[in-house]
Amino acid sequence: MKTPARRLAEKVQSIQESNVFNIRSGELPTWCPGCGYFGIHFGINNALQRLGLDHHQVVIVSGIGCAGRYPFFSNTYGHHTVHGRSLPVAQGVKLGNPNLTVLAVGGDGDGLGIGGGHFPHAARRNFDINYVLFDNSIYGLTKGQPSPSTPKGFKTKASPEGTVDQPLNATLLALSYGATFVARLFAGDPEGITTALMAGIRHKGFSFFHVYTSCVTFDKQFKTWNNLTNRVRPLPAGYDPADRRRAIERVLVDDDSLGIFYQEPPKGKE
Amino acid sequence: MKTPARRLAEKVQSIQESNVFNIRSGELPTWCPGCGYFGIHFGINNALQRLGLDHHQVVIVSGIGCAGRYPFFSNTYGHHTVHGRSLPVAQGVKLGNPNLTVLAVGGDGDGLGIGGGHFPHAARRNFDINYVLFDNSIYGLTKGQPSPSTPKGFKTKASPEGTVDQPLNATLLALSYGATFVARLFAGDPEGITTALMAGIRHKGFSFFHVYTSCVTFDKQFKTWNNLTNRVRPLPAGYDPADRRRAIERVLVDDDSLGIFYQEPPKGKE
Amino acid sequence: MNRIDLTIEICGLSGDGTIAAGGLLNEAMSRAGFSALAFDSYPAEIRGFGRCVTRSRFGFDRQIALENQTNLLISLDDEQSLSRLPFLAADAVVLFDNHPPSPVAEGKSIAGHARPAMSLFGAPFRDLAAAASGSAKGRNLAALGVLAGLLNLPVDAFRERIGKKFKSKGEKVAAGNIRSFDAGLEYVLKTYPDRLRPLPVPAAPAGQAEKVLWSGNVAIGEGALAAGLKNYFGYPITPATPIMEYLAARLPAKGGRVLQVEDEISAIGAVLGSFYTGARAMTATSGPGFALMTELITQAVSAESPAVIVDAQRGGPSTGLPTKTEQSDLLAAVFGGPGDTPRIVIAPTDVTECYHLTARAFPLAEKYQTPVIVLTDFYLDNRVENIERPSISADAVADALLKPAPDQAGSYHRYQVTPSGISPRALPGTPGFQHNITGLEHDERGVPDFSPGNHQKMSDKRDRKIQGALADLDPPEEYGDPGPLDVGVVAWGSTFGSALDAVQSARDQGLKVGCLKITALFPYHEDRIQAFMDRSKTILIPELNHSGQLNTLIGHLGRGRIVRLNQSTGIPLYPSTILGKIHELIGEDRS
Amino acid sequence: MNRIDLTIEICGLSGDGTIAAGGLLNEAMSRAGFSALAFDSYPAEIRGFGRCVTRSRFGFDRQIALENQTNLLISLDDEQSLSRLPFLAADAVVLFDNHPPSPVAEGKSIAGHARPAMSLFGAPFRDLAAAASGSAKGRNLAALGVLAGLLNLPVDAFRERIGKKFKSKGEKVAAGNIRSFDAGLEYVLKTYPDRLRPLPVPAAPAGQAEKVLWSGNVAIGEGALAAGLKNYFGYPITPATPIMEYLAARLPAKGGRVLQVEDEISAIGAVLGSFYTGARAMTATSGPGFALMTELITQAVSAESPAVIVDAQRGGPSTGLPTKTEQSDLLAAVFGGPGDTPRIVIAPTDVTECYHLTARAFPLAEKYQTPVIVLTDFYLDNRVENIERPSISADAVADALLKPAPDQAGSYHRYQVTPSGISPRALPGTPGFQHNITGLEHDERGVPDFSPGNHQKMSDKRDRKIQGALADLDPPEEYGDPGPLDVGVVAWGSTFGSALDAVQSARDQGLKVGCLKITALFPYHEDRIQAFMDRSKTILIPELNHSGQLNTLIGHLGRGRIVRLNQSTGIPLYPSTILGKIHELIGEDRS
Ligand SMILES: Cc1ncc(C[n+]2csc(CCOP(=O)(O)OP(=O)(O)O)c2C)c(N)n1
Ligand SMILES: Cc1ncc(C[n+]2csc(CCOP(=O)(O)OP(=O)(O)O)c2C)c(N)n1
Ligand code: SF4
Ligand code: SF4
Ligand SMILES: [Mg+2]
Ligand SMILES: [Mg+2]
Predict the structure, then answer these.
(1) What distance in Å separates the CA atoms of residue C435 and residue C413, rounded to the nearest whole number?
(2) pLDDT in tens, C210-242
(3) Nearest to D268 by CA among B104, B98, B85, B124
(4) I need a surface site. Which of A135, A207, C537, D181 has the fewest CB within 10 A?
């Protein structure tokens, strides 16, 4: 029987071999086979392709982590800054040259832990940047410590008795911070990522993409492919993303739906 | 006609002269006459007195700002750390000696700006500390720049055209972060502060107190005594603070009610 | 022509209008043609119960330093002013309110403590203002009127400045304030007609260049504007905040942006982001904020990102003395940050240099693709000097970006190893030059590479590049005798003015002394510094810090005796202190 | 007794089990009585396509450094192993898989590149393991079996260790893995009976103290536990993470807490909070995290708060070379942070000192009320040494808190100025001793005070206190001839072992050389260092950084010629490199 991870890895490989997209750089991703990041990579690349963006007009800013290595695998401009600071840098890039399409990408440790202080301000400032959070609920690159979004009870070397802290919900945070575009996505659904990215990049303002993903190497307990795949489902048909209050109310009771939770009608200030 | 600020200042003076509480230190507060902080000072002191806490069993940790000077005016132990770091230090104090009653105090710049990255984690970690945010929506000590909670359109030397960013709502944030006790209060209502503080200090877990207050010296536009006094009112009678979801829903539509928005039934982990 | 050297202090409690009066005095005197250098000191609390003191030194020649002897004191609050007594010249003139708003406490009157040779002039500042304008608030202006009458200063200059300052509060207030001033003026002329002490007024020199009364912070703002600053990112902190506020009022009109961000980490991050796209960007901060920037500064060194960072030093460590001056961030600026992180550190010594070094920091950052740290200090940021309006040629601040040759499209190497260590830099938006920059060690393409040879090569490159910047940094300037010196003073930052003043006095006294000004602190001109040291029998390094940080940095160059003169007081090192040390050293030497 | 000096490398691709095999080798050899020093190198990516190399040096005497000549290589991946060729001794032994899982690419076989004097031993690691255990995964163990057979190593030690290591994966896996080992063993005995190279095994010395095979990180954790650590606050970062993980498994049982917090600022903040209450606390980090702690470290200096901070250095600057070693944070540790911020910086040079210096950091921090920075580096953190289990007396780590006299209740002054600079410290919870600590400049009571005299007094006090700590810091240790030296080597940190090794070799060759070990980097023992330098014709300072940071710190003490030997390669400075330099210097000197 093929595991979901295996299936995804195969899918990703077939896509890679098909050469359908050329936005990847010559560098081979250093991620583990089966890592969810391949799916996100595919989703983002596809969105950039389909939007017809010139590669040289795109800047991807990232922090540190497995996710933070992203820019090296993409044939755009890339700014690999330090741990947790992708948002400040991305905002500087956007102000520096407003013609550029700016993405910030990074992991849950990067964005909700050490960089968590910048998130509210990037959201409320509402510059036209796109923040993709690769949320595997673990510190991957440092070999599997709990992260701010780790569910309770996660056992790692750093938490031998299991974690006890209430996890943070990045979708809820973005909404509370006043982000004007908020989507929740899944690495196992690259097409969904592509669709949301296209809408979010078109959105003039701060767009947040909360991507559920799996660290196949260090998490055998919670955010595994199996668990995630079994959980997620699309937002109900007819869901209206124009109401922030509704979006918050929904996210308080629903951890599993994917899609665009909120999009403010286009009038972003930057 | 007496201004509200004047009235408060007189009230505070009469209280000071009455010597009803001896928890103040020998140091005279360096705040401007009429500053809302006198009311908060009174509210906190009263709570400590009424709870019968020994002064030497209380540690007040603060960051930098007019609010940050608080510990110097109190006859407890005090740890005046750097800008934005009161929560990390306060958690260290609590783990160092769990018998101490630990308060963290500071301004909106301190807590939502530079220190905003620690707030989610202090909340979700749920140690038994009490965080009082003196929210005057301005950087007081540095002479009046906009803060993360400043309403749109605030004109200062640093924002000559008026501020444009969406302000942060600290009550909403605390709830989104999973804080187990959340109250919204007003410097002009020291008795309300006292009541909430007593409940929050008794609460075993992270208690957050969002105190509306006025910087009489630098804000003549928004959070003036007049504006605040006219706005605030108590939470409706019969409001049930046991439901976090309800609390969030309420705070999304109600910026003005004061009282305890949420209190998790006592089972905090620390 | 009489040489004028007049230091005037105004002292009061916060709320007395001390700082405002000092500002008006400086403006009016400057207007009248005097050269001025002034520096206020005030409490760190907004309405603490703190003392405010303004000190201004006036003369005909350019003023380069304050001295700690005051010739004339205006006391707006006697109790506070008592603390100034030790700093009054033996024959100082004291103006005081002989009917102040709250009665002076028993034994606290300045009149009761003045020394015999001092001259006292009492006047009812408050009553005069109240009578003239209906408000006692103008008592500081009445005091200025007394001063103007006593010294026979050009009163129109005062009236004009007062009118201008209060215009925004309405015609009525402005007129009332001018009347308060006039009331003081009339009072002194009437009351002390035979004790007046008219001061010679400088003749307006024909064709003199326009003069401006600028603080160091204004000069920094103007320097950045002159260099075409595009984006300013900041977080409020004393004494750097006025730079942000100054630019907030001016940069948007030039198409730029001033953004107050959530902390200093964000500020430096955004500066790096903006400069990455080629848009000049800057941040200004002080010690605590500078500390927070440490990590991203090291990243900028590794990623070879330009950045301009003003560190406006204040008393430290930590929150320290927010409204006091110190030069104690030097080693943090040069060595702060883990790893081998060479960067450029420069420090102006006066207001004019604040302008020039800030402006030039931009092309330096661009050319050498590195953070440039401009070290100022409270005494430099907040002093005002009236100076010829500085300007800088377009050339000197021209875009210094070295672009890659167009034919490198597709094969561009961001970190190409070159003899100079400088690699051509392509900006995002350029087709075919896509690349990554990173704080991971990387190969020439910018791809992570942790192999031994590569790390060595890249470390060499980064070091070579910064050492090469020496060619674009001002060499140390020597003052005084060109020959062998008994004492050679080596100074930097705001202390340099005092050192030069002291050396000039010592030379007037016939001593063989000289002075070296260092503005390039890293990299530094070893040979020039050593040459100066070598011709000094004793090298004196006066600094406003505790551990002698310049000495730690360059002391190894000295082959003779080095003597440190350090002071951790939060107040400037005065020329007299340095002069005293010179005397001591030469005395020792002779004995 | 034969002197054994054997360096064994295992090289493979990540996933080959290289690191596991190296670990087992070290354990088994240690068990068998050999002294060992081993150090692995692996890629910064989890599953990059990176090379893994373990290197172990074994002998009878204590091993103090690795050398860059390898005597025996086990190749688990030929393509990767080719890169190791330059580091193989001319007569090295190479064991390789002659039927590896994926065919070796054309021209990439190690056998095809070995130099003539080398001895090659091919064995089908994979097939042996597959046949013995049913899984090819055990090929690394089969390789160890080949090794054990070839060198006649004590096989029971291997079997026992393998069984133990895999116990957690079940009896079956463990037994299978032992069988894979045995298969390798039998294979070599059968295939190469006449080429075996039995190694003399050390006789188990009677009454020998218990030996442990510890990494520097384990020793740091144990040192902290020995000192009664109460709270550990950390944030993951290579190479410091294992300290947190080690303590997470042990501290709770002792009533302490390990808390992974949201960033390094929070970690140091919590350490300061905990120590404020008297509860010993620590954090460990590496360059990027250390940079973030800068501001709070300066605050701790001002507020006189104890803290223990391990900075496990890695290649810099910035994110740099996360899995490589370097000694480039020295100046940041000593000078990092705006303001005059004297603090204590100490650096162990081997695993045993990791234990002792960490343990002693706690009473030092307590007594001197200051941050104590323990500087280690990747090579020290991740090497393993088998050492006598260290222990420290209760006295040496006893509570060093100086409490105020009880009669000071009500009139207690937290920052009382004393001759030593140390003020009695009262803990929260003590009735009548309420006070504030602050990073604002303060008077003796802890109340903000920005007056000149007070700032001077408090700056003096803080400086005096730290200088006084010298009495409690190990003086530099001298090795080699006590008389005049042709070359005197001054070293710190992990480079010291290599320096000493080189000096021992040079002395064996009859050269007049010596070596100085410095573990107290701030404050440092000026007199002792100068005395050593003074008797050295040439002073050699080898360091694993680019700019010569120790030289920057103490170079001014040298009155003779100082020569730097710097390397920015991310790999250790080997004894042979230092020895080469010594030869060069002595040669120069003679010519
Ligand atoms: C200031 C700093 N602290 C710590 C680290 C070490 N570090 C590297 S990646 C990482 C966390 C990675 O977790 P996450 O952000 O979730 O990314 P992932 O690896 O899961 O993609 C940490 C702590 C660092 N590089 N810099
Ligand atoms: C790292 C750092 N940055 C900046 C400052 C300067 N600073 C002092 S107080 C303050 C803000 C005060 O605002 P707030 O926290 O709202 O407190 P308030 O004065 O309004 O009570 C700032 C920016 C500092 N002390 N440290
Ligand atoms: S460690 Fe986890 S997050 Fe990192 S590449 Fe591997 S699977 Fe992905
Ligand atoms: S400046 Fe504002 S916040 Fe500060 S003391 Fe004065 S009134 Fe209060
Ligand atoms: Mg993660
Ligand atoms: Mg505020």
Answers:
(1) 8
(2) 789 999 999 999 999 999 999 999 999 999 999
(3) B85
(4) C537
Whether D344 and D393 share a structural domain:
yes
- Interface with chain D: mutation pick from A136, A145, A155, A217, highest number of D CBs within 10 Å: A145
**What are C575's two structure tokens?**
């020329």
Q: What is the residue whose two structure tokens read 């190894």?
A: C556
Tally B–D CB contacts below 8 A.
Answer: 136
CB C333 within 8 A of CB C553: no
| Predicted-complex ipTM score | 0.95
**Is D237 in the same domain as D140?**
no
Chain B environment of C46 (Cβ under 8 Å):
30-32, 66, 140-141, 143, 217
Predicted pLDDT at C201? 79
The answer to whether the CB atoms of C231 and A96 lie below 8 A apart is yes
* pLDDT at res. A19: 42
Which residue's alpha carbon is nearest to atom 7 within ligand 1? D237
For residues D238-256, average pLDDT: 98
Last residue of a domain, one of C366, C397, C428: C397
Q: How far apart are the first and last CA of chain A?
A: 50
**B neighbours by CB contacts (3+ pairs under 8 Å):** A, C, D
Contacts of A139 in chain D (CB under 8 A): 236
Q: D54 and D139 share a domain?
A: yes
Per-residue model confidence as pLDDT tens digits over C278-289: 999 999 999 999
The chain-wide mean pLDDT, for chain C, equals 94
What order do you get walking across the sheet with C51-59 strand by strand? C119-123, C88-97, C70-75, C5-13, C51-59, C35-41, C384-388, C211-215
Residue C197 maps to a domain:
no
Residues near ligand 2 with C-beta < 6 Å? Answer: B 64-67, 83, 106-110, 134, 136, 138-142, 147; C 235-237, 264, 288-289, 292, 319
Q: How confident is the model over B174-180, as a mean pLDDT?
A: 98
CA distance B240 to chain C (A): 35
- Nearest residue to C324 (alpha-carbon basis) of C314, C336, C338: C314
- CA dihedral for C99, C102, C104, C109, sign (positive or negative): negative
Specify the DSSP class assigned to residue A269.
-
Last residue within a domain, chosen from C473, C498, C526: C473
- What residues contact D531, with CB distance under 8 A and at least 6 apart? none
Q: Which ligand is nearest to the CA of B81?
A: 2
Mean pLDDT of chain D: 94
Confidence check: pLDDT of D318 > 60: yes
Same domain as D379, residue D411: no
The residues, ordered by sequence, that sit 6+ positions from C45 with a Cβ below 8 Å of its Cβ are B30, B31, B66, B69, B141
Separation between Cα atoms, residue A223 and residue A132, nearest integer Å: 18
**Residue of chain D with shortest Cα separation from C570:** D452
Give the lowest-confidence range in B6-10, B98-102, D523-527.
B6-10
pTM score of the predicted model: 0.96
**Which pLDDT score is estimated for D68?**
86
Question: Which of C287, C341, C546 has its CB closest to that of D459?
Answer: C546
A166's tokens: 């209430």
D521 touches chain C (CB under 8 A): no
* Topology given in CATH for the domain delimited by B31-263: Rossmann fold (3.40.50)
- In this prediction, residues B101-130 reach a mean pLDDT of 98
Q: What angle do CA A196, A200, A201 make, to 5 degrees?
A: 120
Q: What is the CA radius of gyration of chain A?
A: 17
Pocket test for ligand 4, best of B12, B28, B141, B156 (most atoms within 8 A of CB): B141
**Band of pLDDT at residue C200, cut at 50, 70 and 90:** confident
> What six digits make up the tokens of C203?
């003749």
Q: List all residues of chain D from 447 to 486 with a beta carbon under 8 Å from chain C.
A: 448, 450-453, 455-456, 459-460, 463
Extents of the domains making up chain B:
31-263
Q: Is B3 helix (H, G, I), strand (E, B) or coil?
A: coil
